[in-house]
Design goal:
alpha/beta, four-stranded parallel sheet, 11 helices, 12 strands, Rossmann fold, single chain, 40% helix, 2 domains
Length: 295
Amino acid sequence: MPPFALLLALASLLAVPAHAEIVVQDDAGETVRLAAPAQRIVSLAPHVTENLYAAGAGKQLVAAVEYSDFPEAAKGLPRVGGYSRLDLEAIVAVKPDLVIAWQSGNSAAAIAKLKGLGLTVYQSQPDRLEDIASGIEKMGRLAGTEASATQTAARFRQRLAALQKTYGGRSRVATFYQVWPRPLLTVGGDQIIGDVIRLCGGDNVFAQLGTKTPAVSVEAVLAADPEALVASGMGRGTPVGLEDWRAWPKLKAVARGNLFYIPSDLLQRPTPRMLDGAEALCRHLDTARAKRAAQ
């Protein structure tokens, strides 16, 4: 090869962008490796879908599960079943180079099967508010959208720090959070909604329970006698069962008029919007404090 042609060949090789291997640890403690940023991503939970858009990776999403409805663009994504009943064939058919699963929401058997089919799986499990920011950063690295993800995470942390500063020193409010009325479900100590309650100066009356969404009895709630009772339910209507607590007028939360509602999207999805839910909860607990002072 003539020297000039050799120089041209070398120049063309140098012009090709080289990607170092991407290595991150997921929330299950497993190492996830990609040879290059993911270009075809499948989301297996609504919060994962929202956080991928927040990380600037919406254009790489090729499919998602049902109820992936935020932001608006997510509504147009092809569906691969629901988070609790995945359509494995549909997932494989879109040829993803990365699948982002929900550790506690997706079936462990389904996740294992996807890995067995040779797919790269990252598991998301935000159990603390800070995990939302760090998870978005990791998704940004996996998708090659680090600049956007870093900005989103920084804004989230700044807003979280402001809430911690505002509410960290306030008097404690015994709080019961109702996930669902029948069966009666609440949140345990290692669930992210419990972290929101702590942020606002509340004490989760069932924080001692180890599971994320334990079932409790009405009698146990009456015995705990929370000062505030909060529910989200599903959708944006008044949660099923919230008004039912008025059948126990001696319950402190009922006697003081502290039955509070927060839309489920703002507390039951660990995404940046969870701080909107946190702000609402903090205001509600301030209302409970004001009523206490007026007693």
